[in-house]
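I'll show a typical protein example:
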Amino acid sequence: MSTDKQFIELACDKATREHSILNAQRCTWLEQDVSTERKLVDYDSLMEQLVYAQPGKKFYRDEMNER
């Protein structure tokens, strides 16, 4: 049996155990993958917007602990 067929059978078995269908599982997996990518893009965008907030120097432990 080919790897592709084994993969499809495992995916079908998982969908059955979860009382779902393979197409619904595929949509869920794709949604999770895109969601992760979207979070990374949002994070990168935020970091670009905050580039102005650089401290300008390296702080040492004593300086960071001053109150």
In short: The chain has a mean pLDDT of 84.
